Amino acid sequence: MTEVPMDNVVRMAEAAKQEIVAARSRQELERVRVSYLGREGKLTSALRCIGQLPSEQRPAFGRAANAARAAVEEAIARRREELAAEDAAREKRDQLDVTLPGRGPAVGHRHPLMTTLERLLDIFVGMNYQVMQGPEVEWFTLNWTALNYPPDHPAMDEQDSFYVTDDIMLRTQTSTAQIRAMRARHDESCPVRGLDWRFPPHEVLSHCRCTPPPTRVVVPGRTYRRESVTLTHSDVFHQIEGLVVDEGITFADLKGTLAAFLRAYLGPDTRVRFRPDFFPFTEPSADFSVNCEMCGGAGCRFCKHSGWVEIGGSGMVHPNVLIAGGYDPARVSGLAFGFGVERLAQRRFQIEHIRTLYENDMRFLRQF
Ligand code: DAH
Fold it and tell me: Closest ligand 1 atom to the C-alpha of 340?
């Protein structure tokens, strides 16, 4: 132990400095400090042996020991400052400013197209119509044949429609639901209820064993056409179909119903115009329009400079369609109409381009 204590103290101080630099927190640093400089600390104990040294060695050892101790203390002070600065920075970063205004949860709302659809259906429900739905993927026969389209009708062209198979397609119109609605009115036990949809439509009535009650339905839904998108046309769009079948239904009922509906939706001063048209499933047929609100009738892009905006088609249900639904055209007659929902939403909210209804641009949607 004669000349060893000196080296020992120097080595111990070096080891202490390494541990000090490695300390990751103020608590850890304090543990290091106590282990070297505490009352039972390693360095403290080493210094105590000064009493056992020969007196001529004591001054030198004393100086060296004091220097080692001072160096360790200084290292501790430096590291303590560093750690304190790190703590302060972290605290500042994690600080919670309780005076900041809160960020509310983003609450969604109905799309303008859906609020339009709901409003439209509400009006029909108020007129005692039942709301029904039909499939978007539909039998070829229901989209065309049962609706009295001749086999060579150009609308069936693959250019204009989306086909899944030869028999199955995406419906091009909600009119398909006319047949479903009528057949659903037959008695549970009537064979018409269980007929395959591909069954020849002109033979359906001969299988009826009941007297189906009147039908009065509206059918909202998506429809599909291979169209290029314009201001007012899209390849996917929504329609509402209306169908009334009862004894003594006349063209006057059709005009009165549509005028009442359009005025309920667009306002009592709305002007409604009917013009002769052609649809295979109605006879006679008429399209119906309302005065253009975008330009007040002066003519604009939206009304194609006519002052009128065409809303949809309508007519008296063709006897062949009644037969396909299992109704006897000698006993009942029917009125039908169909129109696009987008155009009415466009008119309601003054939306010039139909595309904006589908883009889901939040800047647009938040306005409603
Ligand atoms: N389905 C027709 C279309 O998509 C619209 C239509 C016209 C529906 C006349 C009808 C109707 O019910 O009677 O263009």
Answer: 4
